[in-house]
Amino acid sequence: MKTKAVPPAVRRKLEAAARKAAAKAYAPYSRFRVGAAVLAGSGRIYFGCNVENASYGLCMCAERSAILSAVASGESRIGAVAVYTPTREPTSPCGACRQVINEFGPDALVISVCDSDKRLESPLCDLLPDSFGPMNLKRAKR
User: Fold this and answer.
1) For 96, which of 4, 35, 123, 132 is 20 to 30 Å away at the CA?
2) What is the CATH number of the domain that holds 122?
3) Which domain holds residue 68?
4) In terms of DSSP bridges, do strands 35-40 and 119-123 run parallel, antiparallel, or are they unpaired?
5) Which pLDDT tens digit goes with each residue over 77-102?
6) Active site residues
7) pTM higher than 0.85 for the full model?
8) 47 vs 56: CA distance, rounded Å
């Protein structure tokens, strides 16, 4: 699914799902509740939230949570990711999330929204240029 193939109505549904997912976040340490929603290749929307852990390295970002939910449901492609943060400025996905998005949606549209009218919309290739992914492994000599 190409970035241009995500209609405005679907973008709005993704954003709404991301906002709703943030309410389910487990963020007792940072109090930074993040929600994400992904548009899978099937057209279904999956959501996730951040889940913190007292051992900080074991925390799970909302974006990866949503993608893993989609994969656990049998999806293998994503066309868009929406991220909501409870801030005045939109927040873009972290590097680890960008890499996981690349695994399942190298052409995905990434939408970041917040509590103001500000937003960011970028194709993943702008957020993770010259990325390493499945195509690199297919080209490797065996």
Assistant:
1) 4
2) 3.40.140.10
3) 3-139
4) unpaired
5) 999 999 999 999 999 999 999 999 99
6) 63
7) yes
8) 22
